[in-house]
C-alpha cells in the first residue's frame, strides 16, 4: 500500500514522522508547505513501518512548471 502526503497543515509533518519512525517529530527533516511525499508500506499501514519513496519540495515543484 502507498500513501501520498501533501503538506498543507503542520499535522502532515507529524503524520509523516509517525509513518516513518513510529513517533511524532523524530523524522529529522522539515516538511515545508506544498511539499509532497510518497510513503510505501508492506501490507496495511502501521506506525514506523513506512518507507519514504520520494519527497518533492516546493522549489523543485515550481521549477517544473
Question: What features would you describe in this structure?
Answer:
By secondary structure, the chain is α+β, with helices and mostly antiparallel strands. The protein has one domain. The protein has two helices and three strands, in the order E-H-E-E-H. A three-stranded antiparallel sheet has the order 1-2-3. The radius of gyration is 12 Å and the shape is globular. The N and C termini lie far apart (29 Å). 17% of the residues are buried. The model has no long low-confidence stretch (mean pLDDT 83).
Give the mean pLDDT: 83
Going across the major beta sheet, what is the strand order?
A: 1-2-3
State the low-pLDDT regions, or none.
Answer: none
Overall shape: globular
| Helix and strand run | EHEEH
Main sheet makeup:
3 strands, antiparallel
Termini distance? 29 Å
Tally of DSSP helical segments? 2
Beta-strand portion reads 15-25%
What is the tally of beta strands?
A: 3
**Radius of gyration using CA atoms only:** 12 Å
Percent helix:
25-40%
Taken together, the total number of domains comes to 1
Structural class based on helices, strands and sheet pairing: alpha+beta
